[in-house]
Amino acid sequence: MKVTVVGAGNVGATCADVLAYREIANEVILVDIKEGVAEGKALDVWQKAPINLYDTKTTGVTNDYSKTAGSEVVVITSGLPRKPGMTRDDLIETNAGIVKSVTEQIIKYSPDATIVIVSNPLDVMTYQAHISSKNSRNKVIGMAGILDTARYRAFLAEELNVSPKDIQAVLMGGHGDTMVPLPRYTTVGGIPVTEMIAKDKLDAIIERTKFGGGELVKLMGTSAWYAPGSAAAQMVEAIVKDQRRVFPVCVKLEGEYGIDDCYLGVPVILGKNGVEKVIELDLNEDEKALLEDSRQHVKEVMSVLDRLS
Ligand SMILES: NC(=O)c1ccc[n+]([C@@H]2O[C@H](COP(=O)([O-])OP(=O)(O)OC[C@H]3O[C@@H](n4cnc5c(N)ncnc54)[C@H](O)[C@@H]3O)[C@@H](O)[C@H]2O)c1
Ligand SMILES: O=C(O)C[C@H](O)C(=O)O
Q1: Are 64 and 165 found together in one domain?
Q2: 82 in a labelled binding site
Q3: Which residues bind substrate (predicted)?
């Protein structure tokens, strides 16, 4: 099956590479607006195949969406990344235009594709893609929760000196500083994390996770790509293999958690139809208040998008 990745920059190229070397798709199409970039990176990934032993066909194109026709999943990473001193929301004006035009092209050639948005500001770019594609909410979703949760799990593994494989967790809310940590739902090999770590240390890890993207922007002058690219590929895998994995995913809420018409990260079951089910956790009052803060923030940025269009 065919998967398209739009944007052959840091995140898009990483995602295409993971899709290829892990043989998640049979065919990967990489698209960029900059002449030759997607072609070059796709060729590089293909030339790695005899070394790393995979046979996923990888093709790059400059703006030729006819080559993306019939894609089962499309990952959209095109858009500006932030620089130090910027928030993700500062990217809205430029990236909304890019996500809109890319989504319109994609849907022309792959009307049934599930679209996975990566471009920032994530929740609102997912909203933009939903408006532009007019597809059902289960098929227009955003990647952030897997990444935010992975950061939290990695920090915990480091602190507890255990394998990251054994940390299970879920975070909710928008992709930003208002994300909603859920230590109550975090386990270490099945043991509640609260039995393994002091509260002040856990609080510090939660705080670091909230600003995890910014930490990397400060270090590198641009945003992260290895974990984001892998996280997007993991969502693609769950969809194309109909794995029914349980992940936090950005999706339009339609009454779940008492929230309507807002894009937020929530735990879902991800399978061949995209979001198969939104899982509703029984949040306590503190968690509900944090989710409400997150909703208000995302709604404000959604209204900026409404004013722009
Ligand atoms: N959701 C997340 O968790 C997450 C994580 C990391 C990055 N991001 C976001 O992903 C986006 C990409 O980040 P990056 O580091 O790969 O940036 P990058 O600059 O390395 O790559 C972006 C690519 O998009 C291309 N592009 C721009 N306009 C295009 C268009 N109209 N059509 C096709 N391609 C176009 C550019 O030429 C460039 O190659 C940013 O908005 C960033 O903030 C999100
Ligand atoms: O921080 C960013 O701007 C990119 C991305 O959203 C991230 O969390 O790494």
Answers
A1: no
A2: yes
A3: 82, 88, 120, 151
